[in-house]
Write a structure and sequence with these properties.
This protein is of the alpha+beta class. 30% of the residues lie in helices and 25% in strands. It folds into two domains: 27-165, Pnp Oxidase, Chain A (Roll), CATH 2.30.110; 174-208, no CATH class. It has helices spanning 15-22, 27-31, 39-47, 94-101, 130-133, 160-165, 182-190, 195-208, and strands spanning 50-56, 62-68, 75-78, 81-85, 104-110, 117-127, 146-157. 17% of the residues are buried. The mean pLDDT is 94.
Length: 211
Amino acid sequence: MDLMTPQDGTAIQDGDELRSHFGEISPLAVHKVVTRLDAFCRDFIALSPFLVLASSDREGRADASPRGDAPGFVQVLDDRTLLIPDRRGNNRVDSFGNILTAPGVGLIFLVPGINETLRVNGTARITRDATLLGPLAAQGKVPTVGLLVEVEEIFFHCGKALMRSKLWDPATRVERGTFPTLGRILAEQTRRIEVEEAETIMEEGYRTRLY
């Protein structure tokens, strides 16, 4: 059975049906959306060491990618523009490839210890402007590109998801040794490299190629 094809009439088919199922949106939820980065938004971004970047390609295939560095690594250029530096990765550039054909993006900023998150929706473009990127150097290395995000809407998201997940609760912390290393996972999934070699490569990358 194809679970993506409704067989029993239980799938919601359109916007009217969706709204009918959930009921009216609260006035506060409607009016909390702002279009400029006010002091609350700027302060939250300055505290945030981590965000998730959502994008999609021309056909609508979605992708979500983590971005992280020291708190405040995302620069607020003005009340409608953010600059996200690109740190060293694996060169897949999935998000950048998507943005070249479909510039719409969504961001979720997280701050450790705070259950609320900040959501930003807008359009993005890739920049190599050295004047913009120079101030975002880390460990003596200037990012070769950055992502300029033109903000269209911003709002704070309530903390229910993080409260339910207990994301910041030390008691829920998973001990690293209870889950396989990324080196082992990649070795066994790809069958192109031995586990020991893959783990050595990953450890070396974490130690010497963060920036």
